[in-house]
Write a structure and sequence with these properties.
elongated; transferase; alpha+beta; Nucleotide-diphossugar_trans; Glycosyltransferase EpsH; Immunoglobulin-like; hexosyltransferase activity; 32 strands; glycosyltransferase
């Protein structure tokens, strides 16, 4: 298999050596190489360098010609002179990776494709990446996004170009790749990709001083000429009507994304912008876009309608509004753009943007309260105005998805009180809503009185438009062994949070006894102090109480303080004052007990597998033995 590498050269004296060396040193070997350099009337030393290399390497051919003003004619000369099985178009200021042709040869052997695209690497510039991300290693052109890489720096089967007389236009200098690529793609049997190796290095030599045609100011006529030529090339394709329409559709998709972006964002004169807009309007009518109109996305439909029926200002207004959060409105359950003409067009054709709107959210804090779980987080809509949004937390039982309960989530500015980290890219692009919600423990028990896993969703309602998502969280945000004493429960409820393998937040609810460890009582004067460890997180307040009882009538409710907290245990201290009379009575008591209560209801406390009552009794005996009260 022979590879022809075609290199049009114009004033590339500072880069052509690196370019040629990258081809000469290809790992496929010199016996598989043919290099054809076409010197397009260079005024620097490029021609001399080419002749030097030709004298050194037998597989290098050099053609000198007068300047044509564009790469099209030099490339066509190379096609005519080529004898290789495949031809690669390489620019004189770019270069190849050492194994580029070898990697491409592997794809040819594997797929027998007419076109092979090697991964691009940018030097001081961006490169196409979408074609590598959204396609398999080998694919057919129809239905793909191949038109989002329209440059000629690819490997082509020479027979494909000869058979269908595919050549570069020579009568214009900007965008001559597009008509060529449309024909090559359309007639190709398949396209193969080298994804795992940088084959082609695209450079942007800002300090070299090379005269690049692409650096010339771009006029509206030059800009539109390549589009008109490409549309005309599609019209001339020798293909069935349906296939031709599909190619028209794909090319208009590209225009809606790439060319319109250039029209709106580039520094064209206003006269040029109006010329481009009006010419696009004529092209829509000429090429009967309504024949394939229904295939377009909602966004592209509105863009096409704005070109057809509106003015340049209407197009620009929608273009920028559609890319900003909050610039779409909800009506009758559908999502429409805010700009007036775009809104009316979308409304009349029932073109809804609900699929464009992405709803995302995350929990940034989860905290145990006395009888509830507090959730704090943020969410955002990528497009919809969410100022009238209502939020809910929906809790569902993992094993019975139809069993759900919802809690209102309240909008707030928590970031002022409790700052937390949010991806800066989100802040730049999205209008974030901060929220908090209380998950009632008693309500959870109404949902499910047994042990189980609860999944959390965030529901957003804007009028009659609803979006929902599984709430995500980071590993640093968790609830560990949060213990609750609920009405009617003989055992405490312990809740732990965990993240699924997709990063979704869920709660595990279990009923289990309270187990104390390292229970200690000491007496100092009139103050009795205590300490205990527990695997669960206990909260005490108005409804949940901690009591130390000596018989029925000596009842103490000490203050309990959390002294230390880890994922494995919680350490608590407590103390209470007693009078001399109470100390005398305590000394006479045979035992005492610790009671954890909820609204006058107590639950058992276990220490080393037994009731804690025995533990307290054993501690009290030596504590007061022999003391003079």
């Amino acid at each position: 298999m022979i590879f022809t590498v075609a290199i049009p050269v114009y004033n590339d004296q500072n880069t052509i050596r690196d370019c040629l060396d990258s081809v000469v040193n290809q790992t496929v070997g010199e016996d598989k190489l043919e290099i054809i350099c076409v010197n397009d009337g260079s005024t620097d030393k490029s021609g001399n360098i080419l002749d030097e290399y030709m004298s050194k390497y037998k597989f290098i051919k050099v053609i000198h010609q007068q300047n044509s003003g564009a790469p099209g004619r030099p490339r066509n000369k190379a096609i005519e002179a080529a004898t290789g099985d495949y031809i690669y178009f390489l620019d004189g200021d770019d270069y190849l990776g050492p194994e580029a042709l070898e990697k491409m040869e592997e794809k040819i052997v594997q797929y027998q494709s007419d076109i092979i695209i090697g991964r691009y690497e940018g030097i001081n510039r961006g490169v196409p990446v979408a074609v590598f991300k959204k396609n398999p290693d080998c694919f057919s052109f129809p239905g793909s996004n191949a038109l989002f890489t329209m440059s000629a720096q690819k490997l082509f089967k020479r027979e494909l170009l000869i058979k269908h007389n595919i050549r570069f236009p020579e009568h214009f200098s900007l965008g001559e790749d597009q008509p060529f690529m449309i024909q090559a793609y359309a007639y190709s049997n398949s396209i193969a990709l080298v994804k795992d190796y940088p084959c082609y290095y695209l450079t942007n030599h800002q300090t070299i001083g090379r005269v690049q045609l692409t650096k010339k100011p771009l006029s509206g006529k030059s800009f539109m000429f390549r589009i008109e030529e490409t549309l005309a090339s599609i019209e001339l394709l020798n293909l069935e009507t349906d296939k031709k329409r599909l190619i028209f559709f794909h090319y208009w998709e590209r225009i809606m994304e790439v060319e319109l972006s250039a029209l709106i964002s580039k520094s064209f004169l206003i006269e040029d912008k109006i010329y481009i807009f009006n010419t696009l309007k004529k092209m829509l009518d000429k090429y009967q876009y309504l024949d394939y109109y229904q295939q377009f996305s909602s966004r592209h439909k509105i863009l096409l309608r704005l070109i057809e029926k509106g003015q340049l200002e209407d197009l620009i207004a929608f273009w920028y509004a559609e890319k900003q959060p909050g610039n779409m409105v909800v009506q009758h359950g559908k999502v429409y753009p805010k700009p007036e003409l775009a809104y009316n067009l979308a409304l009349h054709e029932s073109i809804s943007f609900h699929r464009n709107n992405k709803f995302e959210g995350e929990i940034t804090k989860i905290e145990k309260l006395e009888n509830a779980v507090l959730l704090e987080g943020f969410c955002y809509h990528s497009h919809v105005d969410s100022s009238n949004e209502r939020l809910f937390i929906e809790v569902s039982l993992r094993e019975q998805k139809d069993k759900t309960i919802s809690f209102p989530a309240y909008r707030s500015l928590f970031e002022k009180k409790y700052p937390f980290e949010i991806d800066t890219q989100i802040i730049k692009k999205e209008k974030v809503t901060y929220f908090y919600a209380y998950i009632s423990i008693e309500s959870l028990l109404h949902l499910n009185s047994e042990d189980g896993i609860l999944d959390l969703r965030l529901i957003s309602k804007i009028e009659d438009y609803t979006k929902s998502l599984r709430l995500k969280s980071k590993e640093s945000v968790y609830l560990k062994n949060a213990s609750y004493i609920a009405k009617g429960c003989k055992e405490p409820i312990v809740i732990n949070s965990y993240l699924t393998k997709w990063g979704n937040l869920s709660l595990v609810v279990k009923h289990q006894m309270l187990h104390f460890k390292n229970f200690v009582l000491t007496c100092s004067g009139s103050r009795i102090k205590g300490h205990f460890d527990c695997e669960t997180d206990l909260s005490f307040g108005e409804q949940n109480s901690f009591q130390v009882n000596f018989g029925r009538f000596l009842v103490f409710k000490p203050d309990v303080v959390l002294k230390d907290s880890t994922r494995k245990k919680m350490s608590y201290d407590f103390s209470f004052e007693v009078t001399k009379q109470e100390l005398k009575q305590i000394k006479l008591k045979k035992n005492a007990e610790v009671i954890i209560g909820h609204l006058q209801q107590s639950v058992p406390v276990i220490y080393k597998g037994k009731s804690i009552k025995a533990k307290v009794k054993n501690i009290l005996r030596p504590l007061f033995k022999g003391r003079n009260i």
